[in-house]
Amino acid sequence: MLRLSPAGSGVYNRWTMSVVEIESLAKSYRVYQKAEGLRASVAGLFHRKYRTVEAVRGINLTVESGEFVAFLGPNGAGKTTTLKLLSGVINPTSGAARVLGYVPWKRENAYRRRFALVMGQKNQLWWDLPAAESFRLHQQIYRIDPAEFDRTRDELTEMLAVRNLLSQPVRELSLGERMKMELTAALLHSPEVLFLDEPTIGLDVVAQYKIQDFLKHYQQERGLTTLLTSHSMKDVAALCRRVVIIAQGQIMFDGSLEQIVDRFGGHKVVTLLFADGHIPGDLGIYGAVLSEEPPRAKIRVERAAVAETLARILQQHPIEDVSVEDPPLEEVIADMFSQVDEAAGEDSVEALADSGA
Amino acid sequence: MARTAVWWTILRISLEERLVYRGDFALGTLMRFLPIVTQVFLWWAVFSAVGTGQGGSDQTRIVGYSYHDFVAYYLLTMVVRAFSSMPGLASGIARDIRDGTVKKYLIQPIDMLSFLLLYRIAHKLVYYTVAAAPFALVFYLCRSFFPNGWPEPQVMLAFVASLLMAFLIGFFLEATIGMIGFWFLEVSSLLFVYMLFNFFFSGHMFPIDMLPGIWGDVVRLIPLQYLAYFPAAVFLGKVEGPDLILGLWIQFGWVVFFICTSRLAFRFGVRRYSGYGG
């Protein structure tokens, strides 16, 4: 069991404390429920039904300095809620958390100067002005030393290849360029902790790759503690050694990507190249056939049965080449989410509550 | 010291942003002069009907106001409202709350109300710069409606003070209304009701000292008169001596009151926001 350090706000000792300490953190929301139709709308004017949604249900987690942790989970699993809690936007229903020794939802300026939150869907820059102006404002509100500011801004915009766009109004930038500017703005004050909520959402592959590449280098170089939520497995595979899987507001898994595959990838994909170019019709007896493109066929084989199945196939058929691979990560994760959903399906997540408001 | 630098930067950047929309700005500024023209003609027609001849004679009076008094009054409320009206403030705050932009003020070490106040000051400064020439022209053309010319220096000083306080009351009152967005998703109807009250009871529609009996008493008690009527009345010398000093103090009291309500609304609003939404 994790024990929160008793230190008061702002007293963070990097040698004895974890950067992020979360204990039994829970958050539930009340959501207005309305049945379909006009009648229900009118009824809703007088008597409203609310449903309590437990977005985060007792999370325990510690993140050490310099870790890059990914939160994975289906939509509505509680990932963003957790980031909101840690950045102090919302208060928890119960439980405790400390980031750099601060209680985030106290929203002390001293804490706010030491972290940054980047939301892929939110724009923080001044829309009609060049990004340089927004950066200047950040310099002031975060009280960054002018020389330091110039150096950091130049370094970041250089790394992200947007330096020549500094004087162009933000509204005229592409989505990818804007995201790079958002990242620059968030990193200008050299935060020690960075929360990234879907930073590559909606970006094309090239922009996505560039942002990943930047984050990877910058994070390693600075030893920045980073928490990321993303639906892009590419982001996660490229950046994070540690993956925390959240579903139904609870942590279902905490470990490396490889461990996920070992634990949840119950099968392997076997690709066979037939020497005579002919795919036998009874291939289905060895495992589910995934694709047939003569002379190649892919079948899905239970992990435990791979060796035995391969021996049988090699005995029966002329095989020129064979490869055994883990299934695509997306597939493993999707499988796992559905397993987790089924498991959690039995105990009710929501409690109905009436209230005449 | 550091704080002054922050404020200056916000002001400067806001000014730059306002200057981006110069076309919209110029047009909006000119359009503000249209209502005064219709008002001048409306009252001209009213006085013609009540009195005998063209625009009524100078003796024609409605509740103590001659046609000239009316026009002078309207011109002045136009100036006051250039200070006290806050287009888009309340609705902007409510929108920021609804679409989550308000998070910025929770995450960054910056105070929302100070930021918006500086933004508004920049907005107004640009507006005055653009509107100064048309205002001067209108007053020059209408100089005959001000037979007494400029008021005494002390009265002028009181007028300026009441203008600045009108700006502050307007700002913090509307900011408070916008913060209601923390509790209700939509504040536009509420805002409409407020605008309507403002129109009638600030003195924008007619001088509120025309209102008889209980209505007059009520309107004198609520703060809306300080958004239009009171500063105009100060300029026209309708409030003098101890009444003027008392009036300014009461106006100042309302400034403090609305600073407090907006602060409280923000504090409790954020508490609710972080409790329920986010």
Secondary structure topology:
The complex is a heterodimer of chains A (357) and B (278).
Chain A: E1 20-33, H1 38-46, E2 48-63, E3 68-72, H2 79-86, E4 94-99, H3 109-112, E5 115-119, H4 131-141, H5 146-159, H6 175-187, E6 193-197, H7 205-222, E7 225-229, H8 233-239, E8 242-247, E9 250-255, H9 257-264, E10 267-274, E11 288-293, E12 296-302, H10 306-316, E13 319-325, H11 329-345, E14 350-355
Parallel strand pairs in A: 3-7, 3-8, 5-6, 6-7
Antiparallel strand pairs in A: 1-2, 1-4, 2-14, 8-9, 10-12, 10-13, 11-12
Chain B: H1 2-20, H2 22-31, H3 34-50, H4 67-84, H5 89-99, H6 103-107, H7 112-141, H8 153-179, H9 188-201, H10 213-221, H11 229-235, H12 241-276
Helix pairs in contact in B: 1-7, 2-7, 3-4, 4-7, 4-8, 4-11, 5-8, 8-11, 8-12
Radius of gyration of chain B: 20 Å
> In whole angstroms, how far apart are the ends of chain A?
40 Å
Q: Tell me about the largest β-sheet of chain B.
A: none
The secondary-structure element order of chain B is HHHHHHHHHHHH
Distance between the termini of chain B: 33 Å
N-to-C SSE string of chain A, H for helix and E for strand: EHEEHEHEHHHEHEHEEHEEEHEHE
Major sheet attributes of chain A: 6 strands, mixed
Number of helices, where a helix is a run of at least 4 consecutive DSSP H or I residues of chain A: 11
CATH topology of one domain in chain A: Rossmann fold
- Rounded average pLDDT of chain B: 88
> How many domain modules of chain B?
1
What's the architecture of one domain in chain A in CATH terms? 3-Layer(aba) Sandwich
The low-pLDDT segments of chain B are none
